[in-house]
Model the fold of this input.
Amino acid sequence: MGMSVTISAATEQDAEQIFRLQYLCFQSEAALYGNYRIDPLVQTLDSVREEVARDCVFVARLGDEVVGSVRGRVTEDGAASIGKLCVHPRLQGHGIGARLLRAAESALAEERGATRFRLHTGHRSEGSLRLYRRVGYETVGTARGADGVPMVVLEKRAETYATTA
Done:
């Protein structure tokens, strides 16, 4: 590849690349469910900009290109809600998703006081489920997304975020 992928906090200037990347990456999820109205595909650029300004957002970069991203925020119950983890299709399977998760978990626990991490993924999203379980997440329930997609809810305690290393 010639260049290494770096992980860093997202900046305001990254919002448009994050927006485009998530649209590309979540096409395969939409196809799994036959639903092209899933949240990552209908989210607006302005909404992504708001999340970058407000939430804990990390990006993976290859040179100047954003090739991965993840977002998180601490909710009222002290849990960190992590979402929209995506890695460019050409770079999947190289540990970038786990690195992004580790960066978000670390910042959410150390800087924002999260006591546990929670995420949701579609029940048919086997690759995502494998990754989350490999880095210590356990299924705690199910839910239905606003778009109607059945979701698996996974959690892990904040003290275990180092296990994603």
